[in-house]
Each structure stands twice: as structure tokens, then as C-alpha cells.
Amino acid sequence: MSIKVTKVTKAKLSLKEKLDFFPAVASIVIAYIYALLTGLRRTERQAKSLSLHLGYAVFRKATTRLTTTQMQYILPPSHKIYEQHSKKTGRLPESVELGDGALGHWVGDRNADNVLVWFHGGGFGLPANMGYFKFYAQLLRDLKASGKSVAVFSLTYTLAPIAVYPTQLRQAVNCLRYILSQPNRDPSTVFLGGDSAGGNLVGGVLSHLAHPHAEIDSLPLHSNLGGAVMIAPWTLLEKNFPGIEIYHGGDIITTAVAGPWSAAYIGAGKRDYYTDLSTAPADWFTTFPVNSVLITAGGNEIMLPLIQDFAAKFKEGFENVELFVGYRECHVAPIYHLELGNTTKTEQGKKVEAVLAELMV
Which SUPFAM superfamilies match (predicted)? Predict the structure, then answer.
């Protein structure tokens, strides 16, 4: 079923933001040139290849220099990227209106034995890029080679600050609710996945299943979900990270985005265990209705210490948790590398495939 989206709400640009585009683009070009001149000799704390090094530098500068609304203005919305991918692969787009402004997009056969529900990242303010749909296609191809029948259901949630928390969490819960409402779909054949802000939503949905959010309808399960994957989950929405040594040159983001992205998502609300799972006590995780959880991170990403701390606390309350770190990889490398046109499979990507192949029926 293909649906036509006639109107997409975007945050409005101020006059200042409109006038700022030219100097912003100029600064990004300068950052690219600087990275080109200095990137021929790289250390282990930087990208493995020059092309990746340049891609990291451009994204790092763009996300630091441009506001969330500026990025939304120039980037195609998630559902348009999905339609482009469907056209390139010769498949009819199959999208579903989930209510509350959310859309779900099928990649692969919706009647497959297993469904991987994916929540994309981007600080809650950026749409899914083509790298996501290449990542889904790669997963489906390789899992099929392992004898697994899988489909991906990708959520398009309302971006911040157009909507704020808990809207995106409610949309993620209702996305899972829709999948579980399909005929003969047992929770054990449903898997959650997400990266960065999407990893935050994975944690938020698992939290809601175990501890229903006061503003979101509960979703009782008769058995555990098959598993969950959290790639570089953003589970601590702090603005500053004192006492942590951070080197930005090997990643695609900087600490400068933490404040604006967090503020856009939270709005006038308050942070809690659903937004900041890193602050939850260990026993919060004990009743999560999922068989197994994989957390991955890049060895060069700025969030690595925070992810390591989060995984350790998670494991205190929930035994079946594994942390995997990809050597010399950036934040959400399995997806962003594909967006840059680098098809060499990342260590994190290999690990995600191996774990899913083991868990799926």
C-alpha cells in the first residue's frame, strides 16, 4: 500500500537563518579544504580512509554550523528518501499512516518471518538519509543469505522542534503496536533497532513496555520481543561533559550539538528515565520484555565513554546485554559510511548482522 503525503510540516526559518546560509556554506567548504590538506597523514584516532575523513569533517561542520531548522529546510524528508530508494530498487513504496503524524515504511516482504522495527537517528531533528535504506537493504540481503526471512519497518516520526517529547516516543510505541497487531505476528519475531536518537527511542519503548509512561497508552505483551539493537544510543541528554577527554576529529558530531538538539527535543518539558535512560537505576532494566540487547559504539566516537557507562549500568539490571565497539569507527558508522558511498562493511554492521542472525527464527 502506497500512500501520498500531501503536506509535510517543517519548522519555519527566521530571516536571520535565511541570510546565514551563504556564510554557513562557505565555512563548510573551508572545513572540507582544511580536512583535505591535513588528512593525508592520519592517526588511529581519525578515519580509516581519506574519503571518510572528508565526509566526517563536512558533517561535523554542517551540524555544528547550521541550526536544526536550517538542516530540515535543505534535507529531503524521510518519506521522500524512502520513495527515492524504492524507485531505485524497482519496488513499489509501501507506507502506512500510523496516526499522530507518524509514518511507517516497509522494506522487504511484510509477511516475512521476522520484522525489524527501526527508529532512525539525527538528534530527533534530522530526517533519515539514504544511508538508512542502504543499511536496511544490506541487512536484508545478508540475513537472507543466512537463511533468515526478514523485513524492516522504518518509522518516520515528527522531527523536533516541530513536536517535542513525548510525541516521538508515543509514535515509536504506536509503531510497535501496529506491527504486533498484524495477524499471526508473535512478539518473539519482532526486533527493535535504532541508532543515536533512534537508540534513545529503543530504550524509551522498552522502558514503556516495562514501566508504562503516564502520557502514552500501555502496550502489554504476552511474551518477550526477540531482541533489540542500539547503535551508539544517545541516552544522556546533557549539554556539557566535564571530566571526559573528548577528541572531535575522528567523529561526525561534536559536543556543540548536544545542547541545541536536546533543547529542541525536550522543549518546555522535563527529562526523565525515558529520555535519559543512563540516569535510571539498575533495577529499571530488570523487567524489560526482550530476549537480548546489543549495544554498539565506534571506537573513535565522542560518546564512547557515555555509552560504555550506560551499557555497564544496563547489564547490572539486565543480564542479556552485550557491548561491542568497532575499531576506529565513528558515530553510527554502519549507516553514515553507506551515506558517504563507502560500502565496506563496518565492524559494528557485521556484529549487528551476526547477532540478528543468531536470534531470529
Answer: alpha/beta-Hydrolases (SSF53474)
